[in-house]
Amino acid sequence: MKNNEAVKVVNVTKDFYLDKQKKISVLKGVSLTAKYGEFISILGVSGSGKSTLLKCISSLSEPTSGEVIINGVNPYNLRDSKLSKLRREDISFIFQSYNLVPALPVIENIALPYVCPIKKWISIRLQIC
User: Of 63, 68, 66, 67, whose CA–CA distance to 52 is shortest?
Assistant: First the structure.
């Protein structure tokens, strides 16, 4: 039987250093599994590490320790080109600050990653500006 785990997080920790002496442990041994077709919620008070966990799961911030698996692949073991492909095809991001291209309507912002490879898009934008 095929593995039906879309996301697997095993004993993930994330530490931030304020200076050489001061360490803040935001995530401490977090583990979870999300199966295909399953909806999960991550709840917690402000500052409890929800966004940090999501950044670790989505390959935007490497955990200090532990393992993240997306569709059977650890994104932190991938080369940049493979990681970009994984992010483009297997992960959806909705940022708190949206990160939209201001000159484009919403539908074009949504379609942008599918219509135009990033190198071509940068070239087009530079020519327009």
Answer: 63
User: Residue 70: which of 32, 13, 15 has the closest Cα?
Assistant: 32
User: Under a CB-based contact definition with an 8 Å cutoff, are residues 76 and 68 in contact?
Assistant: yes
pTM: 0.73
Tell me how far CA of residue 100 lies from CA of 10, 35, 54, 118, 119, in angstroms: 32, 29, 19, 14, 17
The sheet with strand 23-35 has its strands ordered as: 23-35, 5-17, 65-70
What value does the CA radius of gyration of the chain take, rounded to a whole number of Å? 17
Among 30, 32, 27, CA closest to 7: 32
Q: What's the pLDDT tens digit per position in 37-50? A: 998 889 999 999 99
